[in-house]
Amino acid sequence: MRNKILSFLLLLFLLLVSVNPVSAQDTNGPVYIVQAGDTLSSIAVRFNVSLDDLMKANNITDPNVLAVGQQLTIPGLEGVSGVLQTEVVNFGDTFRSFVRHTQVSAEMLEKLNRLVSPSELYIGATMIVPVQDNQPELTVRAAPTNGQSLLELAVEQNTDPWTLVGLNDLAGTWDGLPGDALYAPGSGSGQTSAGLPSAFLSASIPTLPLKQGGTAEIIVKPANGVTLGGTLVDKPLHFFPMGNGNMVALQGVYILLNPGIYPLKLDATLPNGTNQSFEQMVLINRGDQPTLAIAVPPEDPTNMEQEDKQIASIVAPATPTKDWQGKFDLPVGLPICIKDWFGTPRTLTFNGSPYSYFHGGVDYGVCSTDHPFDIYAAAPGTVVFASPVATRGNLTIIDDGWGVYTLYAHQSQFGVTVGQQVQAGQLIGQIGATGHVTGPHLHFEMWVNGVQVNPLDWLNQAFP
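RESULT FIELD:
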């Protein structure tokens, strides 16, 4: 009798487990690996699924508990498998080249990224791509030249024409058009960048997406004898050699530019005098500047605007010599204390009317233990201005080359003169309270190709 009761209880337990699998994770669907900054809500929005369905599929009871590197099954994506990764669209990428590069069908990319038009593939856009186990990474890009057969191109890439046909979804070995960006097996840099005219062998923007107050770094490898130019938004680009045949243009992004997509254009003049151009839209995101406005003592806005125009004319030339290497140095001694950040909205009252603007640099207070008032050059360069002005007080401007300038304002006294060559870390002045201030501090400012940028980016990252 006892054995019968035990058998009945065991059978009942097995039945309950089989019909109530609520604790088991639903593994049907692709996997997404949680990245820094992700929230469960943002992931749900990204993949167009409800938060409840995402939690249920992953047996999650608390949506606030999420760890970087955690694997989440994404429900509702029938026919999709593998690990979902993200790739940022770079200069020259097209929808067609993206399909070839990722080896994911056009229909799948459209479904995962909810694309309705190829124009949505702008620079800086983040694309969701499923990656299968043992899927080869295609990074070698090449394009048939005029009169070159697919067989000749395949020999150059150490492969065969039928492999190129399969990887690039061509109709046959006759289907390779001149200038069409094709992918070949293997890894490394190819001959051309996808979708670009022949004058541009490659083009990239290392840090994407761009942001308000940031610095765009545009690297192009031109064909032999090609002269480069171009524009970002409405600013002309100036290219300088950086080695290995590459040219780079550094361009500040105006902090008050509305977030959105803007034109980036490359121009090339060939040795025979003909021109080629390529244009693509680029995403510019909001910067990391403060949003809370602060009030400052009254001052005539006309004086401020005239001074900004004066500064803009001084920092306009893009001299061809790059004086710095790597990151810029701190302009003050340690320890530091920052009194105000780049981009802080500011308001002042003049003649009873409000005037709004933004803080164009970083303010360092007098906090150093050993050298509390010393100001140091953040990078090597040439002093191009050392005089008093109304708002910034005693101001030193150093040309660091390639359109990059560092400014040191509100000094009590100057330590350098115009025309003097300085080195990074060299003493160039003393912190003071000259100009439009409420107390002694160093206002450290940077301009890149005629636009004010966040100096902290240059202290934390090497350009180019």
